[in-house]
């Protein structure tokens, strides 16, 4: 028997309500797509991390399971990225074998939990992205947002660099304090779920393009094996 991978929320807390999906759309400023669960919540209950199935409804493999959505947290991550935190972390990884080992284990956790999410969301296995996680894992750091999303969804002690990133952003955002007031537009309708607009938004979304390119590379890599 393998132990189930750690997750911060229980199965009931992970269920996305209609209000959660609406909130995520407002947080992102675009329609939330293919959310199957909420990976982490603010102390007030609002989503912090949207959990995406490993395959989108469009059929595209999607390696980034945990997407950090809270605008205050995401901008804090961008800030420490701009200050060079990824460079420091990559140096640490090169110099500290214990850390490198723990980070590689975090990668395995990410894969295990994504498998579990694929199963329970009915998506099943996604061979195109087998062994491919996110954020630069297992041996590099390429995105602080991914690491923080992972740490929040897994809870402390799973992703050492995600935990370290949370510490680094704590001056601007921290998980034990609600920073939701005024963080996104709560007036008027949430970003539309209308299909035509949906497609336009996707086409102009650099993050989505990046993810699609990564999925394509992962698929090519998987084919080459
Ligand atoms: Zn809150």
Features:
globular; 9 helices; 3 strands; mainly alpha; single chain; three-stranded antiparallel beta sheet; 225 residues; binds zinc ion
Produce a short descriptive summary.
With 225 residues, the chain is mainly alpha-helical. It has helices at 11-14, 18-28, 71-82, 85-95, 97-120, 144-154, 160-168, 195-203, 206-224; strands at residues 35-41, 47-52, 66-68.
Describe this structure in words.
The chain is mainly α. It has 9 helices and 3 strands. It has helices spanning 11-14, 18-28, 71-82, 85-95, 97-120, 144-154, 160-168, 195-203, 206-224, and strands at 35-41, 47-52, 66-68. A 3-stranded antiparallel sheet has the order 1-2-3, sandwiched between helices. Strand 1 (35-41) and strand 2 (47-52) form a beta hairpin. Helix 4 packs across helix 5 (97-120). The protein starts with 10 loop residues before the first helix and ends with a helix. Residues 194-204 have low confidence and may be disordered. Zinc ion is lined by residues 42, 44, 46, 178, 180.
């Amino acid at each position: 028997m393998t132990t189930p991978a750690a997750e911060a929320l229980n199965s009931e807390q992970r269920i996305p309500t209609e209000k959660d999906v609406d909130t995520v759309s407002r947080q992102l400023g675009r329609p939330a797509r293919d959310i199957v669960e909420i990976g982490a919540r603010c102390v007030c209950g609002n989503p912090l991390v949207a959990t995406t199935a490993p395959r989108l409804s469009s059929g595209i493999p999607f390696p980034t399971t945990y997407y950090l959505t809270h605008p205050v947290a995401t901008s804090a991550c961008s800030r420490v990225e701009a200050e060079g935190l990824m460079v420091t972390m990559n140096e640490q990884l090169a110099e500290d074998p214990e850390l490198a080992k723990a980070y590689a284990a975090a990668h395995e956790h990410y894969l295990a939990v994504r498998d579990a999410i694929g199963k329970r969301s009915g998506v099943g296995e996604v061979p195109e992205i087998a062994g491919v996680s996110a954020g630069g894992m297992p041996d590099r750091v390429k995105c602080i947002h991914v690491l923080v999303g992972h740490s929040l969804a897994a809870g402390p002690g799973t992703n050492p660099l995600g935990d370290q990133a949370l510490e680094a952003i704590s001056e601007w955002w921290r998980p034990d304090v609600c920073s939701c007031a005024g963080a996104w537009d709560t007036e008027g309708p949430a970003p539309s779920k209308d299909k035509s607009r949906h497609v336009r938004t996707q086409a102009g979304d650099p993050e989505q393009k990046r993810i699609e390119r990564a999925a394509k590379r992962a698929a090519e890599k998987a084919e080459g094996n």
